[in-house]
Give the backbone structure.
Amino acid sequence: MTAISAGQVKQLRDKTGAGMMDCKTALTETKGDMEQAVDWLRKKGLSKAATKAGRVAAEGLIGVTVSDKTGAIVEVNSETDFVARNEKFQDMVRRVAAGAAKANGDLGKLLGTPFPGSALSVEDYVKDMVATIGENMSVRRTASLSVAQGAVADYVHNKAADGLGKIGVLVGLESKAEPKAVAALGRQLAMHIAAASPAAVTAEELDPALIARERAIYTEQATASGKSADIVGKMVEGRLRKEFYQQVVLLQQTFLGAGGDGKQTVAQVLEEATKRLGAPVKVHSFVRYALGEGIDKKDDDFAAEVARAAGR
């Protein structure tokens, strides 16, 4: 039997919009031949979205949902912003987000769960919507977070409807303080995160590759000054602390929320909250999704598209 890789299954799924297991079966039946597998799915009627799946879906909505000390977030893409304003599409995203907490950040698990109010899975329901609306769309990613004690707060920017927007943020705060007060502070931090786009809560949590890239840039710039290697090293580490970390580390960023004086860091805001609320307040984690980030969008020539449609 031909071994089928997860990469092949994903490639076929991206091509056809068919379910993961259907794609695996098709590849198995065709001994891994991608084009034959596409035809196999079409013959079986399993590639409902085949004509749409090749199009770039970089629009859509971010959906967030919070329940007490747990929150979940999803990104559901469509081809156009027009569809993202469609009430049926918005309702679909809202329902997908509502069930995302149970998936615990596992996209495959979310796609396989029953769509609320339907006998179909989330994945199959979305495929049916592709056929109904006539645009390629997909559930691209999901994440969730929870705290044992405290609150999870959310914020959506460029709001399309309740819990739906172009940027979505979840932030979990750990504290024994009064939950509503903690949640109110969490919302302010979520708004800050939406605007400031930090990469991590602390410097220790930053991706080492990200630090290495910045260090290499600073080293090249400092070396050009003609200073000794020892001095260059100190200059680089100083710039990392004073420039880079203050830009991308949440606790070191200047707080942008309401009530801030434009000078306080997020860490200082938390210190003040600790005194005001009578208990320590700590950022457990956060998630920030911006619609379409990382997707390569096609720059179509509109005039050429019209000419093609006219048969010229």
In short: The chain has a mean pLDDT of 87. The chain has three domains: 6-43, 59-197+285-290, 203-278. Residues 103 and 110 are 5 Å apart (CA to CA).
